[in-house]
Design a protein that fits this description.
- The protein is an alpha/beta fold and about 190 residues long.
- The protein is about 55% helix and about 20% strand.
- A hairpin with a 2-residue loop joins strand 2 and strand 3.
- The two termini are about 60 Å apart.
Length: about 190
C-alpha cells in the first residue's frame, strides 16, 4: 500500500532537497533509475520480438535456399542431358536409380540415385548439388562402389557444384573424384 506524505513531511522533504546536495542526487538517481529500468524492460521486449522475427526469417531463407538448390540441380541436369546427348550426340545421359536393399550406401535399405553419363563404354557418375560437404563426397564414393558391385563397371566420379567446402574438395582429391565448381569469392569451411 502506498502512503502519502503529510504537508509537514512534504515541506521537510523539499527543504532537504534544496539544502542537502547528496540527498538531492540520491533522489534524482532513484527517479532516473526507475525510468531507465522501465525503458530497459521495453527494450528487452523489443529484442525478444526481433529475435523471434529473425528466427522466423532464417527459417524462410533456409527453405527458399533448399528449394532453389533442388530446382537449380534439376535444371542443370536437364541442360547437361540436352547438350551432351540431344545436341552434341557424344554420350548417353541418364539417371541411375537402384534400390540398395543391403544398405550399402546409407546403412539401411534405400533408393540410390545419381546422374550417369556413358561415352565410348566409359561410365561416369556425376553428383550435381547446390553445395557439397565431406559427407556428400563419401556418399558418392559409396554410390560408386555400389555401382561397380551391381554392374561390374568401375565408374569415374565427378561432383558439379557452385559451392564446395574446402575439406570436401581435399577429400574428393584423395578419392580421385573430379570436382567442377564456379569461382567463389570466399572459401566455405566446414567445422
Amino acid at each position: 500500500m502506498v502512503q502519502t506524505l503529510t504537508e509537514e513531511e512534504k515541506e521537510k522533504f523539499l527543504r532537504t532537497l534544496e539544502t542537502d546536495k547528496n540527498f538531492r542526487y540520491a533522489v534524482a538517481g532513484l527517479i532516473g533509475l526507475k525510468e531507465v529500468l522501465e525503458r530497459l524492460e521495453k527494450v528487452e521486449k523489443r529484442i525478444e520480438e526481433h529475435s523471434k522475427r529473425i528466427e522466423d526469417l532464417s527459417k524462410v531463407i533456409a527453405a527458399i535456399g533448399a528449394r532453389w538448390g533442388v530446382l537449380s540441380e534439376s535444371a542443370f541436369r536437364e541442360g547437361m542431358r540436352r547438350i551432351v546427348q540431344d545436341i552434341l550426340g557424344v554420350a548417353k545421359v541418364d539417371k541411375w536409380v537402384y534400390f540398395d536393399s543391403e544398405g550399402f550406401v546409407f546403412g539401411r535399405p534405400s533408393v540410390v540415385e545419381v546422374d550417369l553419363v556413358i561415352k565410348d563404354g566409359e561410365h561416369m557418375l556425376i553428383e550435381v548439388k547446390s553445395s557439397v560437404s565431406r559427407g556428400d563426397v563419401l556418399e558418392l564414393v559409396r554410390i560408386g562402389e555400389l555401382y561397380e558391385k551391381v554392374t561390374g563397371v568401375k565408374p569415374r566420379l565427378m561432383i558439379v557444384s557452385p559451392f564446395v567446402d574446402e575439406k570436401a574438395r581435399q577429400l574428393a582429391s584423395e578419392f580421385g573424384i573430379a570436382v567442377s565448381e564456379g569461382e567463389v569469392d570466399a572459401t566455405v569451411q566446414s567445422e
